[in-house]
Amino acid sequence: MFGQVSNRYAITFDNVHHHEAKVAVQFPNLQPGKVTFKIARKSLGSSITDDFARNIFNVRFTNEEGDPLNGKRVGLNEWEVQRHQGEIRVNYSIFGDTSNGVHSQFSEEQTIINGPATFMYVPQLATRPVELYVKNRTDLNWEINTELTIKEDPIYMASNLEEFMDSPILLGNFNIVSRTIESNGKKFELKLVVNNDVNQDTNLARDLLENITKVVLEQEKVFGNFPNFKNNSYTFLASFRPYCDESIVAHSNSSFVSHPESLSQLGLVNATRMLSEAFFKSWNQCRMVPIALKPFDFQNPTYIKESWFKEGFSNYYALLSLCRAGIISHDKFLEETSFIVNTVVTSSSLKYQDYNTMSQMSDLYAIPSMYASNTSNVFIPYRDYGFVIAMALDITLRSEDSFLNLDDFMSLFWSKYGKTAIGYSVENIDATLREYVDDDFSKDFYEKYMNKLNYDDLEELFESVGVEVSPVQLPYLGASILFNSNDLAQIKEYTIPDTPAYIGGLEKGDILVSINNRSFSNLAQLSNAIAQQKIGEKITVKYMRNGEEKNTQIELTENPNIILTNRLKIDAKEADLKRGWIGEEQ
Predict the structure, then answer these.
(1) Is 46 exposed, middle or buried (0-12, 13-18, 19+ CB in 10 A)?
(2) Contacts of 77 (CB under 8 A, 6+ apart)
(3) Which position among 42, 67, 146, 496 has the lowest Cβ density within 10 Å, counted as fewest Cβ atoms?
(4) pLDDT at 89 over 50
């Protein structure tokens, strides 16, 4: 395979202190005629459409002897060379200082190379092997960490463009810990590369590896086996530094996870949950792929319906795996689940579009807009909606028959669309559910939990596994309030339709001055002022809008949120179902 003609890349970092790198590419054995060169607008592992070309500059095209060729930019992310003698060499500089695993970052402390954000390519040559020379900054004590196949240090290989683009690289001086995972006669190395704080506490890295090892072994039980990782290795590239964004970017044989807090600040449990989601996606995103994403289009937006399944189910199992592995308690699992359930069920967006439409709309809301947007009232993040669907399906299956569960459904789906590498659609999800159970079950579940959601149906579900559903017995205003830098109580989000705040005319940006003539200087005092009122009681709210003082009468209602807790007395059937669902209490 690697005896074929290869496209050869080189990247150097002489100007890394200014967040710059230089890329040189050789495209040999070209057919006569026009050649188009592109920089991606999208990255594997991310649903966001971006324009990485804005960071590319000083582009030059030459022939094999270094003589200039007449290359020109013909679009935002596209260049052309009309005439050549069979080989074109491209040199350019690239700026990168965004640490989220989707963009690239070049700095002395940490350098992240994400292929789509960094490397120019020729679409017609996508099946060619790729070689990459990485000039390491040994003077900065850097190490190179990647799941690309090493040809000879420091030259790496990939069998084609997509594999090349799906293999991020992390360079720097980090803690590296690993262990061998063995299952069903197979072995692979689980590696953790951690950029933590200046002290680089190795013990924390080891503790995190210990946690995630327990989690991945639980996740394997869902699918029955691990994926076939390239080079029998899987690497977590993890950065917990103040210059990082919070992100989880999954790839076939590795992932990049980052957070602006150090590992000790973030906590091992929260860090493990991020790694847990990334690893579950090695099945549920990287190998079970919606048909609309096959082959991956690095240029054009793809609005898929399946995000609630590939992202939301991964979010569900990320938390569930922690509970089953004993990393978190049942109480903590239910607390986190309560928050997600409340986010979904209290949203007004279900009135306007269904789960498939919201998945398709995800690209519209993935990046905060510079313009005003009512996102929170018209869109539920697919990670949260999919979490609730997965949880409801899991419990419903177990309640229907003690031999049914979401784990076995996922294993069946893996055998049909993961092991075979066949793309799937929402219709295939439904067909597989009908195959796993029957048509009546599928129809009833879709009607009750996917086309609508309400607390009554969810309460019945939770009761079947010995979980208590309790209302938040406090009066409800229905506005998200934050004390700003001037210690003023300001509504930070557009108010939710049909809530007391919305009906009373309050809106984002309003500053609350007093409630029934009672003022407050912090969130605790404000919460106390509301809590002392009675449900159904009308209160007088004084507020400021655009410098003008106003008054409104608001009738407080019952709080729509719920709290999930372990029921103290459960029967044997409920106990068995609960144990099968979230595992034994550690």
Answers:
(1) buried
(2) 38, 39, 40, 41, 51, 52, 53, 299
(3) 67
(4) yes
| Among the listed residues 125, 122, 103, 105, the one whose alpha carbon sits nearest the alpha carbon of residue 42 | 103
pLDDT by residue (tens digit) across 501-530? Answer: 999 999 999 999 999 999 998 999 999 999
When pLDDT is cut at 50, 70 and 90, the band that residue 161 belongs to is: very high
Token pair 């949260």: residue: 384
Lowest mean pLDDT among 98-107, 114-123, 194-203, 430-439: 194-203
Express the helix, strand and coil content of the chain in percent, nearest 5 each.
35, 25, 35
pTM as predicted: 0.93
Q: SS3 of 363, please?
A: helix
The closest of 527, 402, 423, 513 to 474, measured between CA atoms, is 527
Q: How far apart are CA 243 and CA 397, in angstroms?
A: 44
Query: Could you give the strand order of the β-sheet that contains 35-38, starting from the edge strand earlier in sequence?
Result: 35-38, 78-81, 71-75
H or E, element range at 557: strand 557-558
Angstrom distance (rounded) from CA 410 to CA 416:
10
Model pLDDT, residue 448: 85
Long-range Cβ contacts of 420-423 (<8 Å, 24+ apart) = 421/287, 421/289, 423/289, 423/290, 423/291, 423/292, 423/293, 423/294
Contact between 154 and 31 under an 8 Å Cβ cutoff? The reply is no
Q: Measuring CA to CA, how many Å separate 520 from each of 506, 513, 523, 526, 555? A: 18, 8, 8, 6, 20
Rounded average pLDDT over 485-495 = 91
What are the two backbone dihedrals, phi and then psi, of residue 319, each rounded to the nearest 5 degrees? -80, -45
Tokens 């795996």 belong to residue: 321
Task: Give the count of beta carbons closer than 10 Å to the beta carbon of residue 84.
Answer: 22
Is the Cβ–Cβ distance between 283 and 277 less than 8 Å? no
Q: Is pLDDT of 354 > 80?
A: no
pLDDT, mean of residues 182-192: 91
534, 543 contact by CB (below 8 A): no
What is the average per-residue pLDDT within 133-154? 95
* d(C-alpha 149, C-alpha 158), whole Å: 7
Place of tokens 């003609």: 5
Polymer length in residues for the chain: 586
Q: Is the pLDDT of residue 200 over 90?
A: no
Cβ 326 vs Cβ 586: under 8 Å: yes
Bridge partner residues of 409 (DSSP):
none
Mean pLDDT of 373-388: 83
Mean pLDDT of 93-117: 96
Q: What is the mean pLDDT of the chain?
A: 92
* Whether the predicted pLDDT of 58 surpasses 50: yes
Distances (CA, A) of 313 to 87, 288, 580: 46, 12, 18
The alpha carbon of 57 is separated from its chain's Cα centroid by a whole number of angstroms, namely: 30
